[in-house]
C-alpha cells in the first residue's frame, strides 16, 4: 500500500472513533420507554441480550479480525453499528430494540482491539511506529472531544418532534466512516 493511502487510514480511523462513542447510549433507556410494551424489566432483558452477545462474540470477532484483516473487521464493525442505529431509529417493538442492542454489542466486539492493531500496522507501514502513543493519544482526544461537544449541543437540536437526531447523526457518521474505508 502506498504511503498516501496508509496516511489516509489515520483520518478514517478518527471518524470511526468519533462515531463509535455512541453518545445517545446515555439516554437509550429513556428512549426504550417510549416504545410500547417496554418496562424496566424489559430494559433488563434488552441489556442482558446485548451484553451476552458482546461476551459471546468477543473472542470469535478477534479471530475473524486476524483472519479477514483489521480493516475488514473495522468495516464489519461499522456495518453493525449502522444496523444498530437503524434498528433503534425505526424500532416500534421490543424485538427491534433487542436486535439493535445485539448489533451494537457485536459492533463493539469487532472493534475491540482491532482498531489499535489497525493503527499500529498503519504506522509501521509509514515507518512512524515510534509515534504510536502520540498518534493514538490525538485520535483518542478527537474521538472523545467531538462526541462531548455533540452531547452538549444535542439538547438544543432535539425536541419532542426531532428526537431521532442523535441516531441520524451517528448513523451518518458511521456511513461516512464506512465509505471512507471502502474507497481505499
Characterise the protein shown here.
The chain is an all-alpha fold and 184 residues long. It has a single domain, classed as Up-down Bundle (Growth Hormone, Chain: A). 80% of the residues lie in helices and 0% in strands. The protein has eight helices and no strands. It is globular. The model has no long low-confidence stretch (mean pLDDT 83).
The secondary structure category is: mainly alpha
Which quaternary structure do these chains form? single chain
Q: So, CATH architecture?
A: Up-down Bundle
Kindly provide the name of the CATH class: Mainly Alpha
Helix content: over 70%
**Number of extended strands:** 0
Enumerate the spans where pLDDT stays under 50 for 5 or more consecutive residues.
none
Task: Give a short account of the largest sheet.
Answer: none
Number of domains: 1
Number of helices: 8
Question: If you consult CATH, what is the topology?
Answer: Growth Hormone, Chain: A
What is the succession of H and E elements? HHHHHHHH
From the alpha carbons, calculate the radius of gyration and give it in angstroms. 17 Å
The overall pLDDT, averaged over residues, is: 83
Proportion of residues in extended strands: under 5%
CATH superfamily placement: MFS general substrate transporter like domains
Separation, N- and C-terminal Cα atoms? 10 Å
Shape type: globular
Amino acid at each position: 500500500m502506498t504511503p498516501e493511502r496508509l496516511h489516509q487510514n489515520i483520518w478514517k480511523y478518527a471518524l470511526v472513533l468519533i462515531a463509535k462513542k455512541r453518545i445517545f447510549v446515555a439516554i437509550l433507556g429513556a428512549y426504550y420507554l417510549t416504545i410500547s410494551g417496554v418496562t424496566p424489566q424489559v430494559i433488563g432483558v434488552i441489556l442482558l441480550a446485548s451484553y451476552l452477545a458482546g461476551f459471546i462474540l468477543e473472542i470469535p470477532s478477534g479471530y475473524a479480525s486476524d483472519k479477514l484483516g483489521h480493516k475488514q473487521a473495522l468495516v464489519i464493525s461499522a456495518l453493525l453499528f449502522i444496523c444498530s442505529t437503524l434498528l433503534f431509529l425505526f424500532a416500534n417493538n421490543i424485538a427491534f430494540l433487542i436486535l439493535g442492542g445485539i448489533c451494537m454489542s457485536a459492533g463493539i466486539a469487532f472493534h475491540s482491539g482491532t482498531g489499535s492493531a489497525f493503527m499500529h500496522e498503519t504506522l509501521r507501514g509509514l515507518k512512524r511506529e515510534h509515534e504510536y502513543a502520540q498518534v493514538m493519544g490525538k485520535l483518542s482526544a478527537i474521538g472523545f472531544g467531538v462526541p462531548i461537544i455533540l452531547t452538549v449541543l444535542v439538547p438544543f437540536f432535539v425536541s419532542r418532534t426531532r428526537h431521532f437526531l442523535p441516531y441520524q447523526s451517528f448513523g451518518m457518521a458511521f456511513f461516512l466512516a464506512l465509505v471512507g474505508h471502502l474507497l481505499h
